[in-house]
Amino acid sequence: MSLSNPFIVGSGLPVPPPLWPRAIPTARIETDADALRIAQDLAVHLKQNAAAREQSNVFPLEELDLYSTSGLWGITVPRSHGGAGVSYSTLGKVVQTIAAADGALAQIAQNHWAAVAVITSCGTDSQKEELFGLILEGKRCGNAFSERGNKTLTDLKTQLVREGEHVIITGKKYYCTGALAADLVPIVAVDDQGVAWLAIADRDTQGLTVLNDWSAFGQRQTGSGTVLLENVRVPLTRVLPAWKAYLPENPRPDSAISQFIQASIDGGIAQGALEDTISFVKTRTRAWIDSHQDHAYEDPYTRHILGGLFARLSACRALLDVAGQTIDTAVARPTPTSVAAAQIATAEAKIFTTELALDATNKLFELAGTAATDTRYNLDRYWRNARTHTLHDPVRWKYAIVGDYYLNGTFPPLHAWS
Predict the structure, then answer these.
(1) Final residue before a domain boundary, out of 216, 243, 270
(2) Could you tell me whether strands 166-173 and 239-240 are parallel, antiparallel, or unpaired per DSSP bridges?
(3) Which phi-psi region, left, alpha or beta, contains residue 199 (left: φ > 0; alpha: ψ -120 to 50)?
(4) Hey, which residues does 165 pair with through a beta bridge?
(5) Cα 376 to chain center, whole Å?
(6) Last residue of a domain, one of 243, 265, 284
(7) Do 258 and 395 belong to one domain?
(8) Strand, helix or coil for residue 138
(9) What is the C-alpha to C-alpha distance for residues 29 and 265, in angstroms, rounded to an integer?
(10) What is the mean pLDDT of the chain?
(11) Distant-in-sequence, close-in-space partners of 19: CB < 8 Å, separation ≥ 6
């Protein structure tokens, strides 16, 4: 494989925009039940070659096309604009299902759904009509949010300047999951007052360059690298007041939605690891000599540990369902109280999914044994993916905001990581 191929993970090369229209038209999903069924069918296909795909070190564009044309990326578009408007509990199940098959593919869609949430909460009617229409046609959103080297995550340097009927954006972004294969790139930039806006640029806009320089040891095929912005022109009709979602007196549940999807990914990675643990223990692992059993799956200590892990997985699913229901309430009736409740329910779920993802992906090797470390199985991808993805934001702060909420009635901070 040539090192000049821009789709090689970590090549550092600029990547061309994806082809449009897709070779296969994007399906339109209409119900929650259809979304769950399609996700299950797709996950079976994606898992078949997941281990080899990750080892190939190439961005999974073919699988991503299959995922996005399935219609799943449009399921949170409101019914009033032609989408399925599924519940967030359903979205959580969809994300978990895909993440159990392939954690990286599941994460690529995360910022797309987060963008849909911002459009829903902050867009004008005309913006919703245009952008939701494009999304239902199959256009994918990536992201150009975070930056490296700043004092904090919210200390942004990317500038937005108005010029006639456009804004001009200059800056450099990193951790840009989804931008590599996006059709639309939502860019967070600040004006001269330091207020953050979301400008949604076409991927082929002049001055917008995506580099495939993501080099982490986990979630390798997310393509979460650099976006360069050199005098990028975005029409005012594509600029949304994202700051409105975080007004203390009138917040929207955008932060809870973003965190909820992250927690669902971690729950899915844990599920995938446990499924492969079961498979390996039942087919390859030898019984320990002192167990006096013929098969590893008869070992009482193995059964005890797996029983605990699966019980925690069920708890994670239940907490994610509660969080999804609480988010639905906040979307329908956004108030400081309902938004805070959604943030807290999501934080509780994220605590459990983070810790289970790390524990389950580690226990895989303890229970499956030394044979499981053979690189041909590539089972270490589960731990690498869990360890990398759970660093999105520190779960220790989730404990803090949950405790402060119940002890002192303090609402969580209003930003995208809370």
Answers:
(1) 243
(2) unpaired
(3) beta
(4) none
(5) 27
(6) 243
(7) yes
(8) coil
(9) 21
(10) 97
(11) none
Whether residue 212 sits in one domain with residue 67: no
| Tens digit of each residue's pLDDT (9 = 90 or more) over 123-134 | 999 999 999 999
- Annotate 76-90 with DSSP letters as a single string: TS-GGGTS----HHH
CB contact at 8 A, 187 and 121: no
Q: What is the pTM of this model?
A: 0.98
* Nearest-10 crossing angle of helices 300-332, 88-101: 140
Pairing of strands 196-202, 239-240: antiparallel
CA distance 118 to 203: 19
Q: Which domain holds residue 218?
A: 159-243
Q: How many CB atoms lie within 10 A of CB 159?
A: 15
C-beta contacts of 285-290 below 8 A and 24+ residues apart = 285/367, 285/368, 285/369, 285/371, 285/372, 286/369
Q: Residue holding tokens 């892990």?
A: 309
Tokens of 24: 């296969």
DSSP H stretches of helix in 123-209: 125-137
Tell me the per-residue pLDDT of 201-228, one tens digit each, with 9 for 90 and over. 999 999 999 999 999 999 999 999 999 9
Count of domains forming the chain: 3
3-state secondary structure of 204: coil
Question: CA–CA separation, 224 vs 234, rounded Å?
Answer: 22
> What gap in Å lies between CA 57 and CA 3, rounded to an integer?
11
Q: How far apart are CA 298 and CA 296, in angstroms?
A: 5
